[in-house]
Every structure is written in C-alpha cells, then in structure tokens.
Amino acid sequence: ISNMVPMLGDGSLKWYGAILIVIGMLALMAFIVFITNSERRIPVQYAKRVVGRKMYGGQSTNLPIKVNMSGVLPIIFAQSIASLPATIGAFTGHTMDSPGFWGGFLKLFDTSKPFYSILYFLLIIGFSYFYATMQFNPIEVANNLKKNGGFIPGFRPGKPTADFITKVLNKITMLRAL
C-alpha cells in the first residue's frame, strides 16, 4: 500500500487498478483464514450399550481433521533445508564464483535456478506428509474408536477404519501441500 500511494499520485497506477489490488489482497486474506479454520469431518457413531437398566451410547458425532494441520511449518523446514548449502558455503568462505566443486554446487542451489524451486516444492510436500503423520496417527484413532464402541459407518472397526482415515488424511495432506 505504501508503494501504491506514490504510484497513484504520479499516474503510473490507475485508481481502478489500486482498488482491484486491495480487493485481491482482502480476498487472499479471507481465503487463508477460511483454509486455516476448515476441517474435514468424518462421521462416527457409537453403539448402544445396556448396563443394568440404563442405556448408554447411541450417539452420532464426527472426527474432525484440520485441512491445514501443520500450518507453515513445512515451508519453514523446507526453507531451512534448501538454504543449508548456501549457509555452509558462507561459513567456509566459498561463493558461486569459487572455482571447482563449491562454485558449481552453490550455483546449483541458487534461488533463481529451477533445481532449487523443484527441490523446495518437493521438500514442502515431504515435510507436509511427515508432520501430518507425526501429529495424527490413524491407527491410534481407529483403536480408540474401537475401544469406546465407536465406528465409522460403512467401515468395520480396526484396520479398515485406520485405512479409511489414512486415505482421507493423505488426500487432505496432498491438497494442503500443493
């Protein structure tokens, strides 16, 4: 915005262009908040149990899985790993202009090269899956559901439930990572 005001004053940016930019920024912020707060709900039902004269259970609830489970941590981890060669080069006193191995190695990890972009993209996807599996264990969730008499409609308790939760988690993680 601080760059837009002088551009509006000297005429290099039209008023309707500035309005479109501001609307775009607000829409982007709204989309980020929407994705951060969104979750995939898996329906869970609990079987009815009769203990003495009382009936327990028979409830229907859901298992919430956040779409953006790890936030920006995969991006931070990927940036740290991708910038590691440049950091090592700086500590050893080598630059991209250095002859031999170090110069070529540091040129390969230059942020303007396609290799760096592809590596960064793949690291973000990898760390997204890593963080999702560390934070949310489908086998443990399926066992807890089974212990408490809960089940996901259409899936048997135990391994089929864990497989379904894993499949849903993988789809959500891929969407989030991309």
Task: Describe this protein's structure.
Helix 6 packs antiparallel against helix 8 and helix 7 runs antiparallel to helix 8. This protein starts with a helix and ends with a helix. Strand 2 and strand 3 form a beta hairpin. The protein has 178 residues and is of the alpha+beta class. 61% of the residues lie in helices and 14% in strands.
**Secondary structure category:** alpha+beta
Helical stretch tally: 8
Strand order of the largest sheet: 4-1-5
Low-confidence stretches: none
Shape: flat
Radius of gyration: 25 Å
Residues in helix, %: 55-70%
Q: How is the quaternary structure best described?
A: single chain
Distance linking N and C termini: 28 Å
Strand content: 5-15%
Order of helices and strands: HHEEEEHHHHHEH
Q: What's the main sheet like?
A: 3 strands, antiparallel
Determine the mean pLDDT: 86
DSSP strand tally: 5
Concise summary:
The chain has 178 residues and is of the alpha+beta class. Helix content is 61%, strand content 14%. It has helices at residues 4-10, 15-37, 73-82, 84-92, 101-108, 114-135, 138-147, 159-177; strands at residues 39-46, 48-51, 54-57, 60-66, 150-151.
List the helices and strands and how they pair.
Layout: H1 4-10, H2 15-37, E1 39-46, E2 48-51, E3 54-57, E4 60-66, H3 73-82, H4 84-92, H5 101-108, H6 114-135, H7 138-147, E5 150-151, H8 159-177
Antiparallel strand pairs: 1-4, 1-5, 2-3
List keywords for this structure.
178 residues, alpha+beta, three-stranded antiparallel beta sheet, two-stranded antiparallel ribbon, 8 helices, 14% strand, flat
